[in-house]
Amino acid sequence: MLRRNMLIWLVALLPLMVTVDLQAQVVIRNAQIIDGAGTDPLVGDVLVTGNRITAIGKDLKVPAGTREIDATGLVLAPGFIDLHSHSDRTIVKDSGRQNLNYLAQGVTSVLTGNCASGPVDVGAYYKKIDQDSAGTNVMHLVPQGSVRRAVLKNENRTASPGEIQRMVALVDQGMRDGAWGMSTGLIYLPSSYASTDELVKLAARVSRHGGIYASHIRNENTRLLEAVSEAIAIGRRAKLPVHISHFKASGLQAWGLASEAIALVVEARKAGQQVTADQYPYTASSTSLGAMVLPAKYRSRDVLVAALKNKEEAEQLKERIRRGLRVRGEGKRLYVAGYKTNRAWQGKNLAELAEQEKKSTLEIVLEIQQNGGASMVNFGMDEAEVRLIMKQKFVATASDGSARSLTDESQPHPRNFGCFPRKIGHYCLRGNVLPLAQAIRSASGLPADIIGLPERGYIRQGYWADLVLFDPKTFIDTATFAQPKQLATGVRYLWVNGELAIEKGKATGKLAGRALRHESKEKSKP
Ligand SMILES: [Zn+2]
């Protein structure tokens, strides 16, 4: 380790001997530099010239007029990269464009198009980001569910060869326009209607362009292992890297499966396959109530209402819902996060609401579903398993949240405001669950490696100046389930492409993010 560090320093000192040009410059002095590779921190200086990191070393000599920032006691890390963002719709709107809830976490790049849903026209989406900018950099995955809907609507059937061809063509275009891979969301409609074979055909086209297969797998509950195996098999058959989104064992009956799921990934990696995962560091998940307790086809209001009129079907359906509630503590673990019909229900769990309304939890579920549904927070994970997953070297930090307005009426999962500082501040610095260098790597170098993002994710000479300077004593999440819309604290400075998005702890309002396009392998072929 020592010898390797010395070598890094020698390389880092080389640029001192060359002259630097006279663009806007800032030198960050005496920072604890954690470079994203997972190696030990070093105390030193980093020089930023324009939008690049131009020198790293001790006591850097810099041209006159260079701005100096004293970073004594502060940690300088690569700007964080969120591989699991659902900002597709919000980051192109005025209310979410700045992505302040992520800037305050130290995030400088987000990957959208997750869980099978988002814009299919990757080129048009990137163009919007080019035109209006954003607070963070934005990258995109081709969302397989939206692709399937564009060709087969919401039909639950096998795709014909012609339809597969049309889906492959859409995936191909998305990859040519700079998508970093394809996502699936196999508990959602219509993504889940795709068979493994259908997914392999689409993924094979992604592979030709050098993209990844990112999956919200078919089951995170008692059939977790089957679902992990399906994802790994898709990667093996289509010859591309597999990335498992928000890795977890969810629901009381699934507790204990995390270590076996980890073992499946480790085994595949040993066999030479590229398999990775990401995680948000919370014991609660969040999605729609329908996705949690209803079979897929009953999530549409009309289908549900019709089914309830048929006595036999209604009884079967109710039994399914009761089972869904039973594994979630009879509704005690299920909290209403967003419910437009009645905001007063937000923040309460289904058992509480049942008591308050003098109804059964089943009746509450049916009422919510018939009123357009609600987003929920489900305390379904085991703390020990969350920590176990977090420690794995192949697990990146990712939020599963989105750019948000601070003032609307929603009550989102706190991961939207606290994911990264919670892992680093709460679990690592205060809880000692994993070393700081690894916690930083899981938010920077590792996610960059997973998608093959060049010149970002590490503090290296010549790399883009996406950097976060935070105070390890105060870097922490403040968002709670009761009060989720609270910005994280502790980021002192944040550079996005060399521009200051946060300065002395305050957001500058600058929109320095850009659309980052993946370069297809196919393009470089003659
Ligand atoms: Zn998901």
Strand content: 15-25%
Distance between the termini: 42 Å
Q: What Rg, in angstroms, do the CA atoms define?
A: 23 Å
Low-confidence stretches: 15-22
In percent, how helical is the residue content?
25-40%
Count of DSSP H/I helices: 18
- What is the overall shape? globular
The count of strands amounts to 21
Largest sheet: 9 strands, mixed
> What small molecules does the structure contain?
zinc ion
- Helix/strand-derived class? alpha/beta
Average of pLDDT: 94
Question: In words, what does this structure look like?
Answer:
The chain is α/β, with parallel strands linked by helices. 35% of the residues lie in helices and 18% in strands. The protein is built from 18 helices and 21 strands. The protein has helices at residues 2-13, 100-103, 122-132, 144-152, 161-176, 196-208, 224-238, 258-270, 289-293, 301-309, 311-326, 350-357, 361-370, 383-391, 415-430, 436-441, 445-451, 521-524; strands at residues 25-33, 42-49, 52-57, 67-70, 75-78, 80-82, 107-112, 137-140, 142-143, 181-185, 212-216, 242-244, 275-279, 285-288, 334-338, 375-378, 395-397, 467-470, 491-496, 499-503, 506-507. The strands form 4 sheets. Strands 1, 2, 3, 4, 5, 18, 19, 20 and 21 form a 9-stranded mixed beta sheet that branches. Strands 9-10-11-12-13-17 form a 6-stranded parallel beta sheet, with helices on both faces. Strand 11, helix 7 and strand 12 form a beta-alpha-beta unit. Helix 5 (161-176) runs parallel beside helix 6. The longest helix is centred in the first third of the chain and has 16 residues, at 161-176. It starts with a helix and ends with a helix. The model is unreliable at 15-22 (pLDDT under 50). The protein binds zinc ion (ZN). Zinc ion is lined by residues 115, 185, 216, 245-246.
